[in-house]
Amino acid sequence: MSGDTLKLALFDCDGTLVDSQHAIVSAMTAAWAGEGLGEPDPVRVRRVVGLSLVEAVARLLPDGDPVQHVRLAERYKEAFMRGRLAGRHLEPLFPGLREALEALERERVLLGVATGKSLRGLTATLAHHDLARFFVTLQTADIGPGKPDPAMVRRALAESGAEAADTVMIGDTVFDMEMARRAGVGAIGVAWGYHEVEELRAAGAQRIVGDGDGLVAAILEGLDLR
Predict the structure, then answer these.
(1) 145-178 pLDDT tens trace
(2) Which one of the listed residues 14, 19, 166, 176 is annotated catalytic?
(3) Catalytic residue of the set 12, 19, 172, 176
(4) Is 4 a catalytic residue?
(5) Domains of the chain (ranges plus CATH)?
(6) Known catalytic residue at 14
(7) Is the whole model's pTM more than 0.85, yes or no?
(8) 69: exposed, middle or buried (C-beta count within 10 Å: 0-12, 13-18, 19+)?
């Protein structure tokens, strides 16, 4: 990294670092069953990944009231934890992502996470994959406004000391791209997640990458390091 300028790459978690769709759909299905509702549409569930949990539930059940949305969110968290403890929620790391983090670390790029997960859930995921050491800032939706509100990015900037002009957000959903745009940071979309490439571009993605090798190059270019 040239000079003393701090460079920051913020990663989404679900759909960007790890493939958590099966765990999320399973937990949401259990939450719906606990309320005596029919099964939620898995496609619609994947569409709301990245939002804060209560907001995601509200979009899936727009006719429900706020009290029910909160109750469903709690049922989801309980079901997700049961699955994690039982070893059913593997949330595999996407191919090439560990190598990408290692390469960015060698380039002295600061790394962070901005996710719709809870801090407890994110901590467990990072611990499972032995990734925690890479990240200097962890921003989750349970400690402030969720995506696409720019609050998580702004907190990450404050914690890391980086400027918005020296930061990129990497994610797989329009919520990530919208958050990046509203925060004034670079936006990099990944093609292996839960929203379509065309949607990411329309939401403000400046670069789209299709694998871990391409990700490193895109981040370094976005941070003016290449």
Answers:
(1) 999 999 999 999 999 999 999 999 999 999 999 9
(2) 14
(3) 12
(4) no
(5) 8-19+92-222 (3.40.50.1000), 21-85 (1.10.150)
(6) yes
(7) yes
(8) buried
